[in-house]
């Protein structure tokens, strides 16, 4: 795939809002962790706007890291890029010579797939083009979407389609996968899309969006262990923040947003036992929530960048050192 420098650069999602929230924490410098570096759009903005910060950029996709490295070359002396899942954040901090707790001023997590991953048909994330059933965000990892389809039991297939895809017809689709793979193993997305057109009743198709949408989402979450990784990464990111440090997380589907919401709710709750009438000293909440519910992109932003349509942003600030 050719990555010309004249290739259009996608505008980072909710950039202005992310800047409004993280900016006050970064004005006097410190470390910003971009846990989902992608093509480095957000990272470039923050490095340019806050000349005293140092950036640690993480991504599990080696190609994204290479391209972001090229884009951020003008800031080479202020950046450390690390190939890791975002739950590897504590190790990445240690490698950069920082304690894993209380050493970071800002964390940004812009979850999901990058526009580059979606645009590169051969990586198999898009159901609209026929491609190998891959879907690995980290091309060096083992499990592919084809492996899941060809080796998982009926029960496991139905479970992931239902839980990660919120697919009503999970059981029926799982049965059809098991039946068809006995004749011919799955290798391409067109085989799967054809199956989904056959398995999902036409009446539902008219209201439920593209029949492949939910199954592709479920496979992607399974292949990349996305929720497990997030459930470990958000607490690690919160622990890494110093007092006054802020975190912004942007989710693109409800399961991710639910994980973030729950962890933030716990982190912003009082630690004083419920039966005590007054807050015990030092037992108040460690975090304050900075967003009201989950914030969405404006109509104008969605018009300019349809990929911003599903985004849900949540943010928090550490107001007390970890107990
Ligand atoms: C939406 S893109 C980020 C775009 C970026 N903010 C920009 O402005 O260019 C999400 C990135 O997160 C990476 N990613 C997704 N899950 C990850 C995980 N568990 N660990 C590390 N990186 C992950 C993907 O590989 C992708 O490059």
From TrEMBL:
Subcellular location, record wording: Cytoplasm
Claim: Isomerase is one of the keywords in the record: no
Protein name: Ribosomal RNA small subunit methyltransferase H
One GO CC term, this protein: cytoplasm
Reaction equations catalysed: cytidine(1402) in 16S rRNA + S-adenosyl-L-methionine = N(4)-methylcytidine(1402) in 16S rRNA + S-adenosyl-L-homocysteine + H(+)
Main subcellular location: cytoplasm
Species of provenance: Nocardia africana
E.C. number: 2.1.1.199
Binding-site residues for S-adenosyl-L-methionine, renumbered to this chain: 40-42, 59, 86, 110, 117
InterPro entries xrefs: RsmH, SAM-dep_MeTrfase_MraW_recog, SAM-dependent_MTases_sf
GO molecular function: rRNA (cytosine-N4-)-methyltransferase activity
UniProt family annotation: Belongs to the methyltransferase superfamily. RsmH family.
Root EC class: transferase
Highest rank taxon of the organism: Bacteria
